[in-house]
Automatic annotation (TrEMBL):
Annotated Gene3D superfamilies: MetI-like
Membrane topology: Multi-pass membrane protein
UniProt family annotation: Belongs to the binding-protein-dependent transport system permease family.
Transmembrane segments: 44-62, 98-117, 129-149, 155-179, 254-274
CDD domains: TM_PBP2
Keyword list, A-Z: Cell membrane, Membrane, Transmembrane, Transmembrane helix, Transport
Annotated GO biological process: transmembrane transport
Primary localisation category: membrane
Protein name listed in UniProt: NitT/TauT family transport system permease protein
Membrane keyword on record: yes
Keyword Membrane on entry: yes
Organism: Actinoplanes campanulatus
Domain ABC transmembrane type-1: 91-274
Subcellular location: Cell membrane
């Protein structure tokens, strides 16, 4: 009887030890703040270096201040600009265009990517075409877009979608191509076929590559949108790009640089969102060290 008790205690200790190995260590209270600081200080240092270099160029009098104003003047104008309702109306219009075009590109790119990866003849027919469209500068589409849709929202949406959809499609195709063959065989053994196989096995397995495609697709759509807002001025639609173009026409260099900073900040914030989603997915798949 005592031997059985000792054996049971030993087994329990071994199981507890194995459980402890599987559980991640509890983070200390200061770990979160330290991680935020470790992530933030290189970015803050880069911003400080960029601003210092900008100020040095201004002090060198390479260009007159009415052409290249200093950081103090630009940030003062940007602060004043951010307090006006018209500015936020322009930002809202630009973001509405961006997300609408991007969502359309995701829908179209996902359908095309799934179809190309599923049917070999279709891949042979348009696989290279998708890559060619992805590498093509989006600004090349604007003359055709203006001929087709005139100076309208549709012209901008056309270029945004055609600029982003190929990246989304290629991301999904690449993700599906690299799904392990073993997983496909397991799915076949479990009776997964057709749509069920794609929904429960292939698409979830391709998510890491698909998110990379979405991130690249957003970059293409954002660039296409900014080019579109500078080239296609829709009457009555004062977006960020249209306001920047107006500032250039009026030779207000400080406002031009202010709008450049606004576009940069929006791009950085969206990139942070994509990185957060990517890190969460990697953590769920066990691809991080934590």
């Amino acid at each position: 009887m005592p031997t059985e008790v000792v054996t049971a205690d030993k087994t329990a200790d071994e199981v507890s030890g194995l459980d402890a190995l599987e559980l991640a260590p509890r983070p200390e209270k200061g770990d979160r703040g330290r991680r935020i600081w470790n992530s933030a200080w290189p970015k803050l240092l880069a911003v400080a270096i960029a601003i210092a270099a900008w100020q040095l160029v201004v002090l060198s009098e390479w260009k007159p201040t009415y052409v290249l104003p200093g950081p103090v003047d630009v940030f003062a104008d940007l602060k004043e600009l951010a307090t006006t309702p018209d500015f936020w109306d322009g930002v809202r219009l630009t973001l509405t265009r961006a997300f609408t075009g991007f969502l359309l590109a995701v829908a179209i790119g996902t359908v095309i990517g799934a179809a190309v990866s599923r049917f070999a003849p279709l891949r042979a027919a348009i696989g290279s075409l998708i890559t060619g469209l992805q590498t093509m500068p989006s600004i090349m589409w604007f003359p055709l877009a203006i001929l087709l849709f005139q100076l309208s929202e549709s012209a901008i949406m056309f270029v945004v979608v055609i600029g982003a959809a190929p990246s989304v499609a290629n991301g999904l195709i690449s993700g599906i191509d690299y799904v392990p063959r073993t997983w496909l065989r397991v799915g076949q053994v479990l009776g997964m076929k057709g749509l069920s196989k794609y929904r429960h096995l292939i698409l979830p397995a391709s998510l890491p590559s698909f998110i990379s495609g979405l991130k690249q697709g957003w970059a293409f759509s954002w660039r296409s949108l900014m080019a579109g807002e500078l080239l296609v001025i829709v009457p009555g639609a004062l977006s960020v790009g249209a306001r920047m173009q107006n500032a250039r026409d009026l030779h207000e260099a400080s406002l031009v640089i202010s709008y450049i900073i606004v576009v940069l900040i929006i791009g950085i914030l969206i990139d942070i969102l994509f990185n957060t989603a990517d890190n969460a997915l990697r953590k769920r798949w066990g691809l991080t060290g934590n």
